[in-house]
Amino acid sequence: LAILGAANSYQTLSGAALTNDGYAGLDPFGQGLDVLVPYTPAQILLELPATDGSSFAGMYGFDISISTAPLGLPVDDVDSVRLVHNSNTSSIIDAYGTTMLPGGDYNTVRQLYTEASVDSIYVYCSNPTNLPYGWSFLSPLFTDLLLGVPNPIVDTIYTYRWFTNGEDLPVVWAETDMPDGNVLSAGFQLGYKPMGVLSGTNDASCATA
Question: Of 135, 25, 124, 4, nearest to 75 (Cα)?
Fold first, then answer.
């Protein structure tokens, strides 16, 4: 299953789980490069069967290197940049009921998916007279100057997803600032076609009634 977008996500649905195997498309640095990013191990999005109260925890990551030639970095002899991503994930089905959408009403279970991640950036130098030879951790001063990000990048994402039988993807999703917190962005879709995406919402909450 390929989920198309700026980066195409490749997922596998089996009788045991829905997994994210990786993606291909825009590079993580936002420089317009095309990359192929396999996840090792695959990211478990949902274990099956998913019923009220069921939970699991997992981890996944990737380690990719990109040539610096297209980036035009103002540093000689830096051949490649490397991104190492590690995530710890947890999931719980915390609610169930009827979800009403413009296309109809759906019996759904709601998943709270938490992902705590660390992204570290390294560079490879082929000339030891300029920088330490080989791979080295890139100073946060350089990543802030060149990419506008710290190093490492530490983040936690809370995502609510509503799943229903007969749909391979969540019919609704919402990213929040904390469990039962304020909604940062949300959307819904039917089949494989996104039908609506919201961002910058005010006073919307995923708290249960």
Answer: 124
Q: pTM here?
A: 0.86
C-alpha 154/C-alpha 86 separation (Å) is 10
* 104-125 and 134-137 beta bridge pairing: antiparallel
Higher pLDDT, 60 or 124: 60
pLDDT in tens, 30-42: 666 778 899 999 9
DSSP string, 137-200: EPPHHHHHHHTS--SSEEEEEEEEEEEETT-SS-SEEEEESSTT-BEEEEEEEETTEEEEEEES
CB 88 within 8 A of CB 116: yes
Report the Cα–Cα distance between both ends of the chain, in Å, rounded: 35
Cα separation, 87 vs 85, whole angstroms = 7
Backbone angles phi, psi at 144, to 5 degrees: -70, -40
